[in-house]
Amino acid sequence: MSDTAAALAETPAAARAGEGQPVIEARGLNLTFHTNDGPVHALKDVDLTIGKGEFVSFIGPSGCGKTTLLRAIADLEHPTGGSLTVNGMSPEAARKARAYGYVFQAAGLYPWRTIEGNVRLPLQIMGYSRAEQAERARKVLELVELSGFERKFPWQLSGGMQQRASIARALAFDADILLMDEPFGALDEIVRDRLNEELLKLWARTGKTIGFVTHSIPEAVYLSTKIVVMSPRPGRITDVIDSTLPAERPLEIRDTPEFIAIAHRVREGLRAGYEDS
Amino acid sequence: MSRSLPVLTVTAVLIALWYLAVIPMNATWEYDQARRAGTELPFTEMVARTMAQERPVLPAPHQVVIGLYQQTVGCDAVGRRMCRETTPLTVQGFGQRVVAAFTSNRSLVYHAGVTLSATMLGFLIGTGGGILLAIGIVYNRAMDASVMPWAIASQTIPIIALAPMIIVVLNSVGISGLVPKAIIAAYLSFFPVVVGMVKGLRSPDAMQMDQMKTWSATGAQVFARLRLPMSMPYLFASLKVGIAAALVGTIVGELPVQEGGLGVRLLSGSYYGQTIQIWAALFAAAILAAGLVGIVGLIERRVLARMGMKR
Ligand SMILES: Nc1ncnc2c1ncn2[C@@H]1O[C@H](COP(=O)(O)OP(=O)(O)O)[C@@H](O)[C@H]1O
Ligand SMILES: [Mg+2]
């Protein structure tokens, strides 16, 4: 019980203790898929360090390996070379230690379970007691502002609300890493803006380390403390940009010169990736 | 209303076509009779007679309906004494006849009961076996490669040829009565269940399987919480086919045994040229099948609606 409270504590300062200490480290990471049309270099010589409490966006055109990198971190793909550690362990050990929650592009809620039932699902699988399940479901649904929708079924909710429920589900078991693969990609821009704002608040309140895949430049710049620009064939990192934006980010920040300057650098990075590929 | 109107129209058209077909089918016999008697047979007279033959080639619809009544709760079915005691027929008397019909081996109700019990047992065995086979196929590579061809081959053997052999073999090891018929029913009903359940258990997509992996779910958990619930719509579709197949299997299984059931009524009807009896038994089987499929459909709607999978 107490560890739930600590993890969901609304004290960013406390949550940020130990900030910067590496959580995800990739050194010379390679991942090649062997297909019928020959090998596909989804990731080539990727070096990356993600510190605790960072909000890292992965941006790049389709096929540049964003999903593959996130999946490798989550132990859903197996690197063919180099090293990759999560919380100092192998990705497999980290997965088994419940180091991360993963949010897929589609909300992937079970239609036969209520919203609360969906949030409880990983908790049931992990063997939490019924009382603990109820308490945690209540807390995370409050966190994503879905209190009052516990008894609803997924199809009774809008796409944006479904995606919030799936974020709640990924948060329910206190993983301190949240991996999100284009979670708002299928939503319209207005809903997206709101969810981005809420995601920043949630990040500030929980102090999670977040890996976020997107192909929207404004989204990446608005959300991130670090932007990883990638390019395809072979999939690789072309630029890593540390954001200079303040922690407090109203939506209007997107009109400031500082924001525009970062967005410009991201765009340059993307273009460079295109030119030399 | 909007849904029953087209159904009623189609039914009315079918009945009209049936009546039309009755005339040429039964006319030959009437003309033969008239020629032998040396009398003239006017057309209208001929038509009227084709509708009222005792052993028509094709009975008229109303003859089948009357036959169905006679052979369920009519005097033929419930016995002379019960018939006398309940004539003129009151509501209470009708109730007594229905009760009597359940135990009178001259009533279709009794025979339908015999068929139903073997059908249900066979359906349960077939469904259980089908589900187990499907689980084996989904989880075991060797079974995946080997079982399906056998299952398909099993369905290509005409059941009418296989049924007597199953009965003889089981009889020789001392198993008779309900079980052999149920096994033939199971033989027909397991197949749709296997096919449907394999498809259903494999219906979770890669993302859903990955999601389970991110939670480090065990195989049993993936089965119970993902594969099984997702297979429910497929299971119910299969059960509807399977229960009808079980009924057909039971009827075929009844033919060589002659221990009662709708199959026996069909066969004895054809021995004695009692076409009305054949048709009445056929309709009783159809009504039974429709009822069984309807009940499965009702359960399906309930379960899927509760699971939020309403279609
Ligand atoms: N399972 C797979 N098998 C073969 N090739 C794959 C597989 N997954 C991804 N790829 C290939 O790897 C490359 C990177 O894919 P992905 O990581 O999905 O890119 P992104 O998410 O940036 O669009 C693409 O060329 C894609 O076709
Ligand atoms: Mg992708």
What would you say about this model in short?
With 277 residues, chain A is of the alpha/beta class. Chain A has helices spanning 2-7, 12-15, 66-73, 91-96, 115-125, 130-143, 159-171, 189-206, 217-223, 257-275; strands spanning 22-35, 38-51, 55-59, 81-86, 100-103, 177-181, 209-214, 226-231, 236-242.
Model description:
The complex is a heterodimer of chains A (277) and B (311). With 277 residues, chain A is of the alpha/beta class. Chain A has a single domain, classed as Rossmann fold (3-Layer(aba) Sandwich). Chain A is 38% helix and 24% strand. The N and C termini of chain A lie far apart (51 Å). The relative contact order of chain A is 0.17. The N terminus of chain A is likely disordered. With 311 residues, chain B is an all-alpha fold. Chain B folds into two domains: 100 residues, no CATH class; 199 residues, MetI-like (MetI-like fold), CATH 1.10.3720. Chain B has 14 helices and no strands. The mean pLDDT of chain B is 91. At the A-B interface, strand 5 and helix 5 of A face helix 11 and helix 12 of B.
